[in-house]
């Protein structure tokens, strides 16, 4: 069998898996990532001239593939993602009876370095949100986006995917759909509520000017279409620049700021886990490292030998 024919056969199974994966309401971003990863794997198998059916590829071949990715200089996080794609594929093949076991299940990827996330200080957040926004629909929308991101700690894709009906303006609660369409409730503070209420008439104005049917999206552009995650991302970057924020800020930076500031003010990890939509507590624990400055401050104030303790 030629490499092209072999790759075609492998891709047929990959595409069948992706179609089934899409029906289970997985996120579009995850679907794209898995598709890219698995098609790359199919190309690698074809180039190795293995000609073994995808169903009979074993742990040895998969481990060899991952090692080669590392040797090519791929980041540990990227290798881990590709391993996750393979686990999902072979899990599906096992579920459909095509294989007896999942050869990727017990494989371990490279350990990714645990990076402390960047975040803004409380003062920087005040500067960012306190800057002068225009009274135009775009200005009102940008303020509402920033206030909502910091108030809820939601991801950029979650913010872009919000619908008008997801916001309970009476209770100050937002229904957020996270990874895997997992639903959670996020809280809105008073500044975020004011910003959203100011945005709603401007939103209606944009939609009327576009002469489109009213979309479900909470945030729309001048054409009356839902904002993309990329647009929301760029909005945050531009607003940070206009406020002269020195820290390189992204929407995820606001999410980190939200989490760090909650911990600094006494929130417990379990509550923070729920608010962030983390599946595992270990993911949330990274913020305990971020808040070490607060721990130092409390220690210095409270411990008899702390730096700021009163001397008797």
Which key features would you list for this structure?
globular, 2 domains, 3 strands, 14 helices, 312 residues, mainly alpha, single chain, 3-stranded antiparallel β-sheet, DNA polymerase, domain 1, hpI Integrase, Chain A
Characterise this structure.
The protein has 312 residues and is mainly α. The chain has two domains: 3-95, DNA polymerase, domain 1, CATH 1.10.150; 122-298, Intergrase catalytic core (hpI Integrase, Chain A, Orthogonal Bundle). 58% of the residues lie in helices and 4% in strands. It is built from 14 helices and three strands. The protein has a three-stranded antiparallel sheet. Strand 2 and strand 3 form a beta hairpin. Helix 2 crosses helix 4 (76-95) and helix 6 (137-152) runs antiparallel to helix 8 (190-210). The protein is globular. The model has no long low-confidence stretch (mean pLDDT 85).
> How many runs of DSSP E, i.e. beta strands?
3
Average of per-residue pLDDT values = 85
Number of domains: 2
Structural class: mainly alpha
């Amino acid at each position: 069998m030629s490499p092209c024919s072999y790759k075609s056969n492998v891709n047929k199974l990959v595409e069948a898996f992706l179609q089934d994966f899409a029906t289970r309401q997985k996120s579009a971003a995850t679907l794209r990532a898995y598709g890219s990863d698995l098609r790359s794997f199919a190309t690698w198998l074809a180039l190795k001239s293995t000609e073994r059916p995808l169903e009979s590829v074993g742990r040895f071949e998969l481990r060899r593939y991952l090692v080669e990715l590392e040797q090519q200089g791929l980041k540990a996080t990227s290798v881990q993602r590709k391993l996750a794609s393979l686990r999902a594929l072979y899990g599906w093949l096992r579920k459909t009876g095509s294989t007896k076991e999942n050869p990727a299940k017990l494989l371990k990827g490279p350990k990714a370095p645990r990076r402390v996330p960047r975040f803004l200080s409380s003062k920087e957040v005040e500067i960012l949100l306190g800057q002068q926004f225009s009274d135009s629909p775009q200005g009102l929308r940008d303020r509402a986006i920033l206030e909502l991101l910091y108030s809820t700690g939601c991801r950029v894709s979650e913010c872009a995917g919000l619908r008008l009906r997801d916001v309970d303006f009476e209770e100050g609660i937002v229904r957020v759909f996270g990874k895997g369409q997992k639903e959670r409730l996020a809280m809105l503070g008073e500044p975020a509520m004011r910003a959203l209420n100011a945005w709603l008439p401007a939103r209606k104005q944009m939609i009327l000017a576009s002469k489109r049917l009213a979309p479900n999206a909470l945030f729309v552009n001048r054409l009356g279409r839902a904002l993309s995650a990329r647009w929301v991302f760029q909005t945050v970057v531009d607003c940070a620049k206009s406020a002269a924020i020195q820290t390189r800020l992204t929407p995820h930076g606001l999410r980190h700021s939200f989490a760090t500031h909650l911990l600094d003010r006494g929130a417990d990890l379990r509550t923070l886990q729920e608010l962030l939509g983390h599946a595992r507590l270990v993911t949330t624990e990274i913020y305990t490292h971020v808040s070490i400055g607060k721990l130092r401050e409390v220690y210095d104030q409270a411990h008899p030998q702390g730096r700021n303790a009163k001397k008797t």
